[in-house]
Amino acid sequence: MCRSKWERGFNRTLILRLLALCILLNLPIMAFGQIESPDSSRRDLYGWTVQTLKHSSLRKLPIRGVENYLPLLTGIVEVNGNLHFRGSRAGEVSYFLDSFSITNPFFNSSGIPIIPEAIDELQVHTGAYGPLFGSTNGGVVVTQLRTGGDSISASFDYQTDEFAKPGREFLRTTAQGYRNIVGTIGGPLPLLGMKFFVAGQHSFMRNRQPMFLEPFRYDGLITDQYGNYPAGIPLPGTVKFKRNYIDQNWLSSTIVQGNTTVDLEPVRLKFTGSYSFEESPEESNWPVRMRNYYRQKRGLMNEATTKFGGVQASMKLGDRTEVRASLSLYNRFARQFDPDFGDEWKLYADSAASKRLGYDGFRWRYWARPPYTTIFQFIFSHPDAPNNSYSKNEQSGFVASFNAKHQLLPFWTVTVAGTYERWTIRSYRITNISNYLQNLDSNRDGIPDRTFANENDRRISLSASGGITNYGYDYLGNELNDGLDAARRPSFTSLVLNNEIADDQVNFNIGGVYKVFSSDNHTVPNYVDPSLVHYPYYWTVDEKEFTRQESVRLFLPRLSATYRLSQTTTVSVAYGAFAQYTAFQNLYLSQLTTESRIRPYFRVPYWFWGPLVSMFAQPERSTVYEFGISKSFGERGGVSLRFFAKSLKNQLEPGRIYNDRGDAIFVALQNKGQGEIKGVELSAQLNPSKTFSIAAFYTFMRARGTTSHPFALRREMSDMILPPVPFQLFPLDYDQMHRGTFLASLSFDEQYGMVLEGLNITGLVSFNSGHRYTRFKEIQNFGSATPWNIGVRQLIDPRGAEFIEPTNNSTT
Prior knowledge:
Elements: E1 2-7, H1 20-26, E2 30-31, E3 34-35, E4 49-54, H2 55-58, H3 66-69, E5 76-79, E6 82-85, E7 93-97, E8 100-101, E9 103-104, E10 109-110, E11 119-126, E12 139-145, E13 153-160, E14 169-170, E15 173-174, E16 178-188, E17 195-205, E18 216-218, E19 239-241, E20 251-264, E21 267-281, H4 288-291, E22 301-316, E23 321-337, H5 351-356, E24 372-374, E25 378-380, E26 390-409, E27 412-430, H6 433-440, H7 455-466, E28 468-471, E29 491-502, E30 506-518, E31 522-523, E32 532-534, E33 539-541, E34 547-548, E35 552-564, E36 569-580, H8 591-598, E37 620-632, E38 637-658, E39 664-686, E40 692-705, E41 730-731, E42 738-747, H9 753-756, E43 760-768, E44 772-773, H10 793-796, E45 810-811
Parallel strand pairs: 7-12
Antiparallel strand pairs: 1-13, 2-3, 4-11, 5-6, 7-8, 9-10, 11-12, 13-16, 14-15, 16-17, 17-20, 18-19, 20-21, 21-22, 22-23, 23-26, 24-25, 26-27, 27-28, 27-29, 29-30, 30-35, 31-34, 32-33, 35-36, 36-37, 37-38, 38-39, 39-40, 40-41, 40-42, 42-43, 44-45
Helix pairs in contact: 6-7
């Protein structure tokens, strides 16, 4: 990898502060996500686990990105791209940027991509963290952006693997066509004591899916006798793949973010903003790239644009009181579209519109040419085959918060805080545009002249034929703000009280969060026998049966304490209760989707694919305990040992819904899951000299529960006749008994002369236990679902698997 860098005024300090003791003794004061500068005269001690990565350490790591930094730390497991904090499910983490919440509740993930060079400090709170950080079950990630200094400082960074052409090998490594350019600038502005910092990044990957792939080439392919074409017709050309490389599978991303501070004594203002744009082809990843080998120019495109802005005002009222208030706005819009027709999705499957652009991929007006089949039904799409789907979604919201901290007595500080968070969420998807158009134009003359008894009949008929799911947009894709398909508007209200009692030896934090969860989800109270309305071709649930879920109100207590046994040894304990909703993309359904699953005469008491009825879903909850002991060796480093336990309850999982007679009538998400997490974390930091340091992190953890994610238990809820499933805790999919990281860093300062000055060498080694899986009886035939996945039928559809051991009993 090539790396060139020019930088003025950068900090050459090497120390990597990952030791829990160093964190405890140097932890910045935090209030509702706000980070203040450390006060060396007062060392605040908290009982929960906090791990910190500084800018000076991050810039020396041989990896990039917050999602890659976090798995290096104790208690954090990464499996299949998902992060699990101390045994939590994916998506049970809240994210802050500066003092602002940036968690997108639709995905329950960080709503903003962060440029690594823009990070001043990355803090990770796990375990029984304090009430000022919210209530998510897993933990909190707080990113503090760099700010402008007293002089102009700038940097430029360029990284690439293009020493060889993409797909060619260099030093026995296949180049993927990676480029990353980052520039930063910050410093003072000549008015009002303003300082600014801005970072920009552009990334491009010609292949966003690096993988092991043996090169192959097929010439002279012809159709077989199993498709819609006569046998022997030549396919459009050669099929060829390079080693470990998939062409036409690119990803482009641009990010700009920064902040400005204004010092207007006694008021201090901070403005933070971020903008990002990402695009990539949809049907170019493996193995879809094979099926669409000949039609890359017609493939769907993905785009996502994210905008964020926030302002915070803080002011000191005397020597003992400080108040803060903040407001932030967020918007993310994403779409999946045809690059030729954009948002005009009705043109996608219209042969007349395609022919004007030179495409001849149609058999009839709205029917695409069938795919080619070769070598016993291997399928290749026609080069001009149209796209038949379109989707878009948008999440916009604001977060308003206040924080007041007052020192009642020299040893007693009280903090009162509050937050109101409200979102507007929209989603639209049509999956069969061709069928939609034929419904309107049955004689295929290009005139959509079918008539309907009324508008509601039209909506139901076209939604069913087009496979449309929508909320926040009507069935045509126009924004909608009222009615049952209106935008979902969830909100969260939090009131926080925290008491900190501290002296030179003991520190107590006692408080809690009173939180109101309003999901704005649909529910049908009379779901057993709802009233029906008859339209000319459909029976549907009467819209009057639908209501909104009631808000959930919870008080979540927190308690932590630390005790200094000596100047070098500290012990701590912490307890906390937590709760949060799963990602709303798992819960929100269109009105027609919900009623199709609960209406009598059509509902079924089993489920295997597709969305699930979610009107019974409530927040998932957990209770956390932890104990820690830390030993410092002064400037030479230290060690930290922590024990933790977590009880999971109200976990969402599929379950059957019964009527008064005890008959199963349909399947829905229910809060019946449970689990338990136990573990030990060990951190060690040694600094043998000023130029050399080493750090080691190790986690031993067991994560068990009834289900690993809300859509587990597919086999148990399927149409097979299975015996009742006994209540039992199994190892979760992401259970990893052992996980560790070892870091070593060697740096040279000015005393080593101009040749070595500024040189740094960092090595990183990580290891972890394998993935959990369940063995089943050896297959007695090929078990092919299609010619593309011979031998893995039971992995795709486990209904036919004959398991020979308990769930997740084996490990790779």
